[in-house]
Amino acid sequence: MKRFFALGLAACLALFAALTGCSSTSEKIRIGEVTRSLFYAPQYVALEKGFFKEEGLDVELSTIPGGDKVMSALLSGGIEVALVGSETSIYVSQQGAADVVVNFAQLTQTDGTFLVARNKTDSFSFEQLKGSVFLGQRKGGMPQMVGEYVLGKHNINPQSDLELIQNIEFKNIASSFASGTGEFVQLFEPEASRFEQEGIGHVVASFGKESGTVPYTVYMTKQSYIDSNPSAIQKFTNAVYKGQQWVASHSAKETAEVIGKYFEQIDPQILENAVQRYLEQGSYAADPVLDEQEWNQLQEIMDAAGELKQRADYTKLVNTTFAKQSKEGN
């Protein structure tokens, strides 16, 4: 029976689909996301709603902690598409990579972290951070660079005006604060909402609102892959755009319900609250187009943090062709 089926399938694929009624196999694309985060809600919606399958893609998602590790997987061929901060493509370019890493579809457009204070206050000002112990993010990463940029806007030098802790691994930052380290901490959702619910800390400011629109998390791939697979990249971008549009047109509760399987350890109400917070501040990009103004803002932030050797060419590291086609075609 198996032999008969295999022979029949082979014969079917050898004929034109219009005559035989057989469809071609799906194109496979492996995504490596830098972390599992509800900040990436449109991606999970696209997976759960079957938007990638509608485009004829078989998508395999894996979580690869650390931007450097994601880039290694991409450059070595372990994945076809990376979901990570745009700054990583600039770092790769600065190192002189022969095969340029190109940003082709933006997923999030603001920083996703919040300033959480251990003690509740009725009237917060950034001046209160002076002299405090601040539990920040990893040096060179986008969250930390944005954090320093925002503090600088409020005339706070993070190196001299407070005690900055940034040697704790990303996955352990929340637990370190919960165990008593620091008076302030920079956290993503849903940890920020969970800490509020449990009385561990209180959200006093949004780094996303303070820093403006930036290409915070973007899908990128090697130029050689784009050259060889432009159709697959277009289909991929179409699916991402469908996910973005779905999230934009549905309630936080509906989105939380769809992506719940990716966050089984998170209380559904906390998940909904966190999604709502991101919706309210416009963190989820409404479309996948990464415009030049956002790119320039990213480099301003990197430059202020001392992480930019030289300005990166927008026309070289960003390709908006696929994103614009997705918008025009939907």
The main pleated sheet reads as:
5 strands, mixed
Envelope shape:
globular
Strand % is 15-25%
CATH homologous superfamily classification of the largest domain: Periplasmic binding protein-like II
CATH topology group of the largest domain: D-Maltodextrin-Binding Protein, domain 2
Secondary-structure element pattern, one letter each? HHEHHEHEHEEEHEHEHEHEHHHHHHH
Which residue ranges are poorly predicted, with pLDDT under 50 across at least 5 consecutive positions? 1-24
Whole-angstrom Rg: 21 Å
Q: Under the CATH scheme, which class of the largest domain? A: Alpha Beta
DSSP helix fraction? 40-55%
- Tell me the total number of β-strands: 10
| CATH architecture annotation of the largest domain | 3-Layer(aba) Sandwich
Total of domains: 2
Distance between the termini: 43 Å
Question: Strand order of the main beta sheet, please?
Answer: 2-1-3-10-4
Keywords: Signal
Main location: periplasm
Pfam families: NMT1_2 (PF13379)
Subcellular location: Periplasm
Explain this structure to me?
- This protein has 330 residues and is of the alpha/beta class.
- It folds into 2 domains: 24-110 and 214-329, Periplasmic binding protein-like II (D-Maltodextrin-Binding Protein, domain 2, 3-Layer(aba) Sandwich); 113-211, Periplasmic binding protein-like II (D-Maltodextrin-Binding Protein, domain 2).
- Helices cover 45% and strands 16% of the residues.
- It has helices at residues 2-14, 17-20, 41-48, 51-54, 67-76, 87-94, 142-153, 173-178, 191-198, 207-211, 223-228, 230-248, 252-259, 268-280, 292-304, 314-317, 321-329, and strands at 27-33, 57-63, 81-84, 101-108, 113-117, 133-135, 163-165, 184-188, 202-206, 217-222.
- Strands 2-1-3-10-4 form a 5-stranded mixed beta sheet, sandwiched between helices. The chain has a 5-stranded mixed beta sheet with strand order 7-6-8-5-9, sandwiched between helices.
- Helix 3 packs across helix 13 (252-259).
- The longest helix has 19 residues, at 230-248.
- It starts with a helix and ends with a helix.
